[in-house]
Amino acid sequence: MLSAIKELGQIIIEREKRELLDVLVEDPNSNGSYTKVITIVFTVNDKKVEFTGVELEQYDAYKRMKYLYKSGAANSSDFSPTAKLSGKPEGTFDRKILGWFKILDNKKAELSQSEREFLTSVRDLLEKNSTIIKNKILKIREETPKKEGILITIKFIQDSKALYVGDILVFKRLLIFMVNEKDNKLMQKNKVCSICGEIKETVMGKIDTYAFYTLDKPGFITGGFDEQRAWRNFPVCPECKFSLEEGKKFLEGNLTFKFCGIKYNLIPKFIIGTKTVSEDVMDIFTNTSKLASLKQKNLERITNDEEDILDVLKDANDVLTLNFLFIQKVQAAQRILLVIEDVFPSRLRRIFNAKYAVDVLFNQNFTFGTIRNFFAKSDSNKRNYDLDKYFLDIIDRIFKDRPISKTFIVSFIMKKVRAEFINDGYFYPTVKDGLQVMAFLEDLNLIKVGVDTMEQKIFDHMFDKYGQMFRSPLKRGLFLLGSLTEFLLRKQYKERNAKPFLKNLKSLKMTERDFKGLLPRVQNKLEEYDSFDKGKRQLASEAANYLLLAGDNWALSVDELNFYFAAGMNLADEVAKVIYPDNMPE
Questions:
Q1: How far is CA 420 from CA 121, 279, 431, 522, in A?
Q2: For residue 528, what is the enclosing H or E element?
Q3: pLDDT tens digits, residue range 38-48?
Q4: Domain that holds residue 328
Q5: Are residue 361 and residue 493 in the same domain, yes or no?
Q6: Euclidean distance between the first and final Cα of the chain, in Å?
């Protein structure tokens, strides 16, 4: 996975002729929330520096290299005197802005006499005017809406021209020096890089491009808990680190999407190099403007993300694979929720074709969001989503063409169906969603559906629309019994404005014995309402015939039995078209 990210970064560096500083400097407004910039202003005349004041300006994306922002550890300074305002404003100033000037105490930092004098002057003025600066920062923060993030940096006015830290060479040199010093803390000579697999003159062992592990806890350290040997965890050469940084930055800025609410990076892997990949496909992964254009197009979406570009990628040739990296940020570390590797475009096409089939069958747009409806919360009253693990496992199986337990799927579908049924909620739409999920997985051959040979009956055409889902007497019998029950409930509601027969359905937890006793009760009730007409008699006859063919000791779980029954209730109008071709009687 990391090699694919590194390869992507390398391609972008070569295409755009990026330099080291371009890769290292971050966009502080990458998430769109940092819209304001506080500048601590100094004037420079004949090498004399004077403090002028504190100003507020709008964030400008074109000044990214001028701001020269690169984040550091939360409890220390960043890699330049530019920082995001967080927590207590005065604390950010002391720790991040003024604290950066501790570089002057580092004997390894190579500074000329004039550079040292210049930085010392700035530091002394910051300390001298710290109260004024902090009060002004605090005032701006209080007057700015909390949802708007604020960046703090230093600006110099020289010869009527505004210069930011990124316009001054010494700040740029020191940023690179500080990054290298951090990386070289655990450095080894002539070792194998874990990414490119080559023996390199130097490898670094404390790379935090992806914080999958930390050396702050002994359990992450190999070599007898000796930190000096911890480089063995993740040795990376400078060249790969450079490319990895750029790859990560491009992914987070351009190839980050949401899969039904869960963030993921879409990472390409070019199987036999980039020469076999068309220019159009390469642009999708490396051209920012092309990506932005695609995200605005009216594409088929399968993940509920309005910027989903999988519809375009499904038509690519199998000269590349797609990797889905689901990451959850936990404080400073990153937790991998799931990695789906090596998904071919042809597999995407197969998934989309199954989606199209379900769309046509149910006259409704099917997406993975329909599956998510059943795998979000174990209890609708819970605040947080606690079924992500199950949902992601299903997604993994769909993309990797691995079988899924039908019993497992139906149990979650029925849990939601029952809840809607009991609470008089969205029962019918929920059952329909469940049918779509089953039809989608059945089309992909991911669930095993029992198929029996049966004689021709009047409902065959209707059942055939749903593929193999109803290819057994038991499922058909339960389905038709559900439709017959639905007709009774509608009649009761029309006559009495209530559905007293619902209590006989036992909150959709009926067993084999319950179902066998249900049919005669439904028939009797229909007779009482003088509603057991020719069509319903035919329906009851067909249901009885199928249930008799099913025999005893039904093999389906209680959840599955009730699911097919509920499906019949939901699709009763389809059944009506068969038994009442000239319109259903009142």
A1: 70, 50, 9, 22
A2: helix 512-528
A3: 999 999 988 79
A4: 255-371
A5: no
A6: 63
